[in-house]
Design goal:
The complex is a heterodimer of chains A (529) and B (445). Chain A has 529 residues and is an all-alpha fold. Chain A has 22 helices and three strands. A two-stranded antiparallel ribbon of chain A has the order 2-3. In chain A, 55% of the residues are buried. By secondary structure, chain B is of the alpha/beta class. Chain B is built from 16 helices and 22 strands. In chain B, strands 3-2-1-4-5-6 form a six-stranded parallel β-sheet, sandwiched between helices. A six-stranded parallel β-sheet of chain B has the order 14-13-12-15-16-17, sandwiched between helices. In chain B, helix 1 (10-20) packs parallel to helix 14 and helix 6 packs across helix 14 (346-358). The two termini of chain B are 19 Å apart. The model of chain B has no long low-confidence stretch (mean pLDDT 84). Classes of the chains: A mainly alpha (529), B alpha/beta (445). The interface between A and B is medium-sized, with 9 and 16 residues.
Chain lengths: 529, 445
């Protein structure tokens, strides 16, 4: 029996990606030099990346990537990059109190970075314990991951016929070519420009607020750091209190950038080409904006009425799970009755969770029960197809809603033939079936993952509530970052046992790659026939 | 005029027959038997051969030809024949096509393929059906003078309030002319004391609102209503086009197609139509879809027998009106006799359209009434016309019997044609003419 997958070609392609990863280490090196910190962790990593990259490239000098090899490249690239990207955490943490000296923690942090999740196992997020360079590497890993996602969603997944992205195939620019390479190069350049352009715009705006004296905490370091993780829908922050550390104006300023990050990047391509009306005609974008508006309004209403200080039990719970070295709730203030604060925190949190960014403008563990439940719902919505957002994604919900309506109609008229249309274009029923399968798989993985975490915690003697297990699972599978209670926005994932952490590393990986490209690698037919 | 017709099928033969009396007609067909039978039945020159070749076209006298009609069953052959004719001669070319795709190309770039005029049988048929839907009780509706005037033909139902009245009693409408009464294959030009009987066919000409009011007085129950709930049976080209045109009128037609793949394609192409995959002769299905509430059922399946069955079934289940596509012209009367409200023959519709063009320069518009027993013509009056500068009563004396001036328009405005109305050059006259005197009348007007 021979393998039907040219794994050498795939490995060679992954090698090329690793080789270029070394270039990305220039940024932490520059930061290290600027702050007079050690450049060693990054130089070693760069050397390792180049060495492994060149070695893999030698396996096949002229890689021929077809669909099957594409699946392998996509799935393994994220794993390989995360492994190499974990090296700086290990080296920098070696011999210190840093929790990242543990290899599983380092890999968790790195995977959380490159999958733009934002779940952390850093015991203490501070420049006292970690170098500026390392914190910046953590931020940059999310930006690189987001960049990969844009290419993945717009250029690669449609060719592999998986994920919601296939629906956007016709929207994506460039001709349809069976080979992956020409398409990636052509499409990716345009979308990277938009991605990088908006990132730089945000950095300038944030630093501008600092220069204008409106945001004293938003230093150049912080402006760059948050620019890296907003467009990537990442959510890492070098501040332990996330966006709570900044002035209200900064929180308002970040909201539109998170929204942009959750938008289909193909729309930016249209807008850059002068087609300004395109986004307004796009049904997913309209649904997305409408949903954000509705959830924000509900959240704001709930906070305005009864959202202020946490009830005694949740505050106590939050303190209980605050964990090693992390700040306990530093300052809560009443939101109830304060229109601006209710609106700001509800909108910020809804946008942050729906787009799967994971920033926090305050610890929503302190919110009232109903308001917290809005967050739980938001965790399953997801960004748009073709964005850096994760979870189930808007377009899938839109199509599920349309097909439910069709189902109701055909119940009355069994003979009716009703194609489901998106922007007037009829969708293939196979694509719709793919959406059902994906959504079902998503919930199955969510439930199974929760079970694994709960069982592991029980055997390990760790205290873990059902809410914590469920939201930890949803937050990692959906690449969101924070959950509720013990895994809340100001808490961390350090308390889990190694097996649970490895499970969540897997969930982040599989969720980021739209599930099927990873699962297909486990099927026999993929390798043999 | 020297006319060459390629293809001696039903349309080709029909056109040849109607033109042979006054024109020099050559018919080309690839089938030897058909050529032979045509030679004996019509006074035309029939040539056997492939009408897309230069040799055969030379034999048919393409150099002297004024009009070239390609009417075979193959769209491509018709187009190639026209292009060939244009390449070696300079006739006015008419191509008949079934597929609307060719028509779209031709409309996008007029005179494409060397075709001066293109008629799509299916589209014309669909347009005819949609016109009928606007006035569901009419057998036939045609627009003249850019829509300012309608000609409509109605059957008089048994229980109509107008039955057993005289024309002068029934004619309470300004701006409407009773042009003819058709009874037992006879065309009668009505006079004031002509009595209207049940089962008569009445042809009226006038402005659209009056025609609608007349329909309402003929059948007070629903005669004046537009059909809004439309059920199209058969997702072929005609059914598709009809549904598309209904969509364009902001209706939501239902389209029934039995083939699953075709149904899916139709559903994708027709966002405003409810496409259903079913057998339209399934009584249970029709009942479940409340066919009794439907204003108009259009039977556009691919065989006359099925269309008849569907129409009668829908009628039995309570549908208000039925229109059936009838491929065999001979069956139209039969269909209407057994209970189908209107039979539409695609070839008659096509022949009507092509006949319009054989009268190029003489008439503006033509409608063929009552299976070619009469025609309604729109004519722009010039200085040499018998009508020019005279009252209608004066002119009538010089015109043969069997002609009615149904309506006049002056600068686009309707003018009631009375005996003392003076017709001016530049007016458009819509006249009802018995087929036997059409050529004579056209010469004088």
């Amino acid at each position: 029996m021979t393998l039907r997958v040219d794994w050498r070609a795939s490995a060679s392609m992954i090698g090329t990606v690793l080789k270029y990863l070394a270039l990305a280490l220039v940024i932490p090196v520059v930061v290290a030099i600027r702050y007079g910190e050690s450049t060693l962790p990054f130089l070693v990593t760069a050397a390792v990346a180049v060495a492994i990259g060149l070695a893999l490239e030698r396996l096949e000098t002229d890689p021929d990537i077809e669909v099957r090899e594409g699946f392998l490249v996509v799935a393994i690239t994220w794993l390989a990059v995360s492994l190499v990207g974990a090296i700086p955490y290990l080296i920098a943490g070696w011999g210190t109190v840093s929790t990242l000296a543990n290899p599983i923690n380092a890999l968790f942090e790195s995977m959380s970075g490159f999958t733009t999740t934002g779940a952390t196992v850093m015991g203490e997020i501070s420049t006292e314990q970690h170098s500026h360079a390392l914190l910046m590497w953590r931020q940059e890993s999310q930006w690189l991951g987001g960049m990969g996602i844009v290419v993945l969603a717009v250029a690669i997944l449609p060719k592999l016929s998986v994920g919601g992205a296939q629906l956007m195939d016709a929207e994506a620019p460039g001709p349809g070519i069976e080979k992956l390479t020409p398409r990636i190069a052509e499409t990716a350049r345009a979308l990277w420009k938009a991605y990088a352009g908006i990132t730089i715009l945000e950095m300038l705006l944030l630093y501008g607020l600092h220069l204008a004296g409106m945001a004293p905490e938003m230093t150049l370091f912080n402006a760059v750091a948050h620019g890296f993780t907003t467009m990537a829908t990442g959510g890492f922050s070098p501040e332990a209190r996330s966006i709570e550390a900044f002035a209200a104006v900064v929180q308002w300023a970040i909201i539109p950038f998170m929204m942009a990050a959750g938008t289909n990047f193909a729309l930016f391509w249209h807008v850059l080409n002068g087609e300004y009306r395109e986004p307004f005609g796009d049904p997913e974008f309209r649904f997305y904006v409408g949903l954000l508006g509705a959830l924000s309004a509900i959240g704001a209403g709930l906070l305005f009425v009864d959202g202020g200080l946490a009830s005694a039990t949740t505050a106590a719970a939050a303190t209980h799970y605050a964990g090693v070295g992390s700040d306990v709730i530093a300052h809560t203030f009443p939101i109830a009755g304060d229109v601006e604060a209710a609106l700001r925190h509800a909108t910020f949190q809804v946008v942050s969770i729906v787009t799967t960014t994971g920033y926090a403008s305050m610890d929503f563990n302190a919110w009232s029960g109903p308001a917290q439940y809005v967050i739980v719902i938001a965790m399953f919505v997801g960004g748009s197809a073709g964005s850096t957002g994760g979870a189930i994604k808007i377009v899938r919900w839109l199509i599920i809603a349309k097909s439910i309506r069709r189902e109701l109609f055909t119940t009355v008229h069994p003979e009716a033939v009703r194609p489901i249309r998106l922007a007037g274009r009829p969708l293939d029923d196979r694509a719709i079936r793919g959406i059902y399968v994906f959504t079902l798989l998503y919930f199955v993985l969510f439930l199974l993952g929760t079970l694994v975490l709960a069982v592991d915690a029980a055997f390990g003697g760790t205290e873990l509530s059902t809410l914590e297990a469920m939201t930890a699972c949803a937050a990692t599978l959906g690449n969101i970052g924070p959950g509720l209670a013990g895994v809340g926005p100001m808490n961390h994932y350090l308390g889990f046992d190694p097996a649970s952490k490895l499970t969540m590393i897997g969930l982040m990986w599989i969720g980021r790659l739209e599930i099927l490209p990873v699962l297909v690698l486990l099927s026999r037919s993929y390798w043999r026939s | 005029m020297h006319v060459i017709i390629i293809g001696a099928g039903e349309v080709g033969s029909n056109i040849a027959e109607s033109l042979s009396a006054s024109h020099e007609v050559v018919v080309v067909d690839i089938d030897g038997d058909r050529v032979e039978s045509l030679t004996y039945s019509l006074d035309v020159l029939a040539v056997e051969g492939d009408g897309t070749t230069m040799e055969i076209l030379h034999n048919a006298g393409i150099e002297e030809a004024d009009l070239f009609i390609a009417s075979t069953d193959s769209d491509e052959a018709n187009i190639v024949a026209c292009a060939t004719a244009k390449a070696i001669g300079d006739p006015f070319t008419i191509a008949r096509v079934r597929k609307t795709e060719f028509l779209q190309t031709w409309e996008h770039a007029p005179h494409a393929f060397g075709v001066d005029f293109m008629v799509s049988t299916d589209l014309l048929t669909a347009q005819e059906i949609v016109r009928i839907a606007r006035l569901p009780t009419a057998q036939d509706v045609d627009a003249f003078a850019d829509g300012a005037i309608h000609m409509a033909q109605f059957a008089v139902p048994e229980d109509s309030p107008l039955a057993d009245l005289t024309v002068s009693e029934a004619d309470r409408f300004e701006a409407l002319t009773f042009a003819a009464i058709l009874r037992d294959d006879e065309v009668t030009i009505p006079r004031g004391d002509t009595r209207i009987e049940a089962d008569d066919q009445i042809v009226v000409i006038g402005i659209p609102e009056r025609v609608r009011e007349f329909a309402a007085s003929l059948e007070p129950e629903n005669g004046g209503d537009r059909a809004t709930d439309v059920l199209v049976v058969g997702g072929g080209s005609i059914g598709y086009q009809a549904a598309r045109l209904f969509e364009g009128r902001n209706l939501t037609p239902r389209l029934i197609e039995q083939d699953p793949d075709r149904a899916r394609t139709l559903a994708e192409d027709l966002p405003g139509t409810i496409v259903m995959e079913s057998d339209a002769t399934d009584v249970e299905f029709l009942t479940r879809e409340h066919v009794e509430d439907v204003d108009l059922v259009v039977a556009a399946l691919d065989s006359d027998e099925k269309n008849l069955l569907v129409s009668l079934l829908a009628r039995r289940l309570g549908a208000s009106r039925t229109v059936a596509v009838v491929e065999h012209a001979d069956y139209v009367d039969l269909f209407e006799t057994v209970g189908v409200d209107v039979g539409v023959n695609p070839r008659e519709v096509t022949a009507e359209e092509i006949t319009r063009f054989t009268r190029e320069g003489e008439t503006e518009n033509v409608a063929i009434v009552a299976s070619d027993r009469a025609e309604v013509l729109e004519i722009e009056i010039d200085d040499t016309s018998t009508l020019a500068g005279r009252s209608i009563r004066e002119a009538a004396a010089e015109l043969p019997a069997g002609i009615v001036v149904g309506a006049l328009t002056r600068d686009g405005e309707y003018v009631t044609p009375r005996g003392d109305t003076v017709v001016e050059p530049g007016d458009h006259a819509v006249v009802f003419v018995d087929t036997s005197i059409v050529d004579e009348v056209v010469g004088k007007l």
